[in-house]
Amino acid sequence: MENIVPSDATGWMPSVDQGGASVHNAVVSVLGSRILGGDYAPGAALPREEELCAMLGVSRTSVREAVKVLSAKGLVEARRRAGVRVLPRDSWRLLDPVVLVWHPSI
Fold it and tell me: How many Å from the N-terminal Cα to the C-terminal Cα in the chain?
């Protein structure tokens, strides 16, 4: 199970506690939940890699691996020099078991 704790007083973005769980899986869970929860609308850009690293307290490798997983689930598209954007909802693999965990009302 992923342990996630607030990274700052605002609680805007949780920091990933590396309590035995795969760090990149925890990042996938945080970002996936935020996308499905509407924090990042389709077409919106995710924060830059460096910003995500700082907000979540993880390495670039963890963020990059998480983006690959989210891309495979149809949630985001990463383009060199253009960043990572949330794809339209009809691209999302809504029947993916992990996606269903993030947003069971789908």
Answer: 22
CATH of the domain at 76: 1.10.10.10
Structural domain count of the chain: 1
Query: Distance (Å, rounded) from C-alpha 48 to C-alpha 21?
Result: 24
Cβ–Cβ contacts within 10 Å for residue 8, how many? Answer: 10
| CA separation for the pair 20, 75 (Å, rounded) | 26
**Residue 85 near residue 46 (C-beta atoms within 8 A):** yes
Element (H, E) at 38: none
At 46-85, the pLDDT tens digits run: 999 999 999 999 999 999 999 999 999 999 999 988 899 9
Q: What is the pTM of this model?
A: 0.77
The domain containing residue 73 runs over which residues?
Answer: 3-102
